[in-house]
TrEMBL record:
Name of the featured protein: NADH dehydrogenase
Chain segments annotated as transmembrane: none
Ranges for domain NADH-ubiquinone oxidoreductase 21kDa subunit N-terminal: 9-93
PANTHER family in the cross-refs: NADH-UBIQUINONE OXIDOREDUCTASE 21KDA SUBUNIT N-TERMINAL DOMAIN-CONTAINING PROTEIN, OXIDOREDUCTASE 21 KDA SUBUNIT, PUTATIVE (AFU_ORTHOLOGUE AFUA_4G04750)-RELATED
Amino acid sequence: MPVKETPAAFPVIDTDPHFTRVIRYMRPSDYLTWAGSTAIGPGLFWLYEKVDPTKASKAALRSSLRLTGFLGFAAGFMLAYQNSSARFWGWRENSDEVKKDQIELSERYAAGKPLYGETELTPYLQGVAARNSTFSQLKLHAFPW
C-alpha cells in the first residue's frame, strides 16, 4: 500500500524516518527548544510558588521542582523530535537536511550497502510496521510511544 501523499512546501526526505536519524539531523534550534522546555517547567512552578505560596516544606518543593524539570525535559524532547521530523516530511524548511541526506545516501551507495539498511522482516510485516509508524510523531503529545 503506498504512502499517502501530503502537500509539502519543501522536498520530502523520508515519511518514516528512523529514530536515530531524526536525532542525528536535529538542529541547534531543536536543542534550544528542548533546553527551554526543560527550564520553563521548574521556572514557572517556582514563580507560581512565589506569587501564591502553598506553604509546603522545602523537601516537597524540591521534589515538585525535580518532577516539573523531568516533565519539561520529556516534553521538550518530544517537541524537538517532532520539529526535526517535520523537516523530514518537507513541512518545514529543510535544505540542510536534504544535503546531509544526499551525502549519507551517496556514501552508502558507494560502499555497496542498501540505502535504508537491511531487514529480516517479510514484505508483509514491513508494510505493517510502516503503516503503524508513518507520521506517528504527530501524536507524541497524546501517546509518547
